[in-house]
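Notes to self, APC family permease:
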Amino acid sequence: MSTASSPTEITTSAAPASQAAATPAAEPGSAAGPAQLRRTLKLRHLVFIGLAYMAPLAVFDMFGIVSDVTDGHVPLAYLVVIVAVLFTAFSYSRMVRFFPIAGSAYTYAKEAINPHIGFLVGWAATLDYLLLPMINAILSAIYMGAVFPDVPFWVWVLLTVGICTVMNLIGVKLAASMNIILVGIQLVVAILFVVLTIVNITNGANGSGLSVQPFISSDLQLAAISAGAAVLALSFLGFDAVSTLAEEAERPERDIPRAIFIIIGVAGAFFVTVTYVMQVLFPDVSELGDIVGASPEIAKYIGGAAFQAIFVGGYMMAVLGCGITQQMSAARLLYAMGRDGALPKRLFGRINPRTGVPVVNVLIVAAIALTALFVDLDRAASMINFGAFIAFTFVNLSVIFVFFRFLKRRGPGAWLGFVIVPGIGVVINVWLWLSLDTVSMVIGGIWLALGAAYLLITTRGFRAPAPDLTGPINIGMYE
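result:
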C-alpha cells in the first residue's frame, strides 16, 4: 500500500478509503487526470512555514495573564505544554506515514475512526480559524493601548478589523516574501527584548537574579500550572499546519515528521527562554500597571519609551500581517465548505465575480472578529484552545484505531508506539482540555452541539455519508 509506512503491516481488506488520494499528483493539464497539488516543498520550507504560522512574538501574548494564574511559573507551564505537544507530534508523525494526504486531524479521524467523527473533529477545529482574527484584534488594542492609553480600546479593535477586512475585500494577498520579512522583524525585536532583559537582570534591576524559581518553588500548585498550560497551548497552534501540506511535500513520510519535531523544538526553546528571563525580572506581574499588557510594560521598563515604541511597532506589523491572512483563510474555509456542500452553498459558496473574493464570508468573519469588543484575552484564547485540544486528542486516538483496525504486526514495539504513547497523549490533552475555563467550555460545547445537529440533519440520522471537509482544511493557505 502506498499510504503505509510498512506495506506488510496493513491488512489489505481494511485499507483506508483515501489510499487513491495519496498517489503522486498528476501534472496540471496532463492526460493522467485533473490538476492536483505539486510536490515542491523541502524540509526547510516545511519548517519555515510552521514557524511563520506560529509567529515568534506570540510568546508575549499571554505572559501577564499566565504569570498571574501560575503565580510566577510561566516557563514551567510552557514545559507542560511542550510535553503534551510532543506526545501529539509523535502521533502526527505516525499518521502522516499512513495517510500522506492533506487534511490533518480531520482526515486522520475520518479514515482511522469514523467519517462522522471526523466531521465533528473538523468542525471543532473550524472554531480556531473563525476566532483567530478576534484574538488579533484584542492584541492590537492591548498593545496600542500601552503606547496611547488615552485612546479607547474599541477604537483599536475597529481599526484592526476594518483594515484587515478592507484588505481582504479588495483581494490583496500577502506574498511569501512578505511573511519572511514579518517573521524576520519579529525575531529581531524578540532578540532585542531578551538582550535588554538580561542586561537588566545582570544589573540587578527590580532586585532580580538568575534562579530556578520560575520552574520550581514551594508554593507551586498543579491546578494553577495546568490552567496556565491550557491557555499557553495557543502559542503552539500551527505546529501541525505542515501536516496539511502532505500532498505538497517532496517526501512527506520523512520530512513532515522531522519538520514537526524541529518546529516544536525551536519554538519551545524560544518560548521557555524568553518567558524565563521575563519571569526572573518580574516574578510578580502585579507590580506592573497592566497584567494583560505586561509585555509592553516590561518593554518600557527594560528599554524606555523608545524601545517600547519599537516593540509595539514590530508587534503591530505581525498582528496586521497575521490578521489579514487569518481572516483570508477563515473566509476561504467557509467558502470551500459552502462550495463542497458542507454548509449552505447559496450563502457560503459564492464569490464576487469581479474580485474573486467571497465577500459575504469576509464580512461574516469580520463580524465574529468584532466580538473582541466584549471578550477578554484569556477567555478568547481558551475558546480557541477548545477546538485545538479536541483535534490533538483525536489525532492520538486515530493512532490507536490504526493499531487495532489496520496493523497486522502487534509486537511490544507496536503496542508502545501505537497504543501506550498516544494513550498518554490522549490523557494529557483531555486533562488540559478540562482545565479550560467554564465559559469557554460552554461556548465550545454549543459550537460542537451545532455541528452535531447539522450532521444529524444532513446525514438523515447518520444514514448518509458525512459532508466532506477535505476542501476547507486544505484550501491552499500558502498559494
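- Residues 1-35, 471-479 have pLDDT under 50 and may be disordered.
- The chain has 16 helices and no strands.
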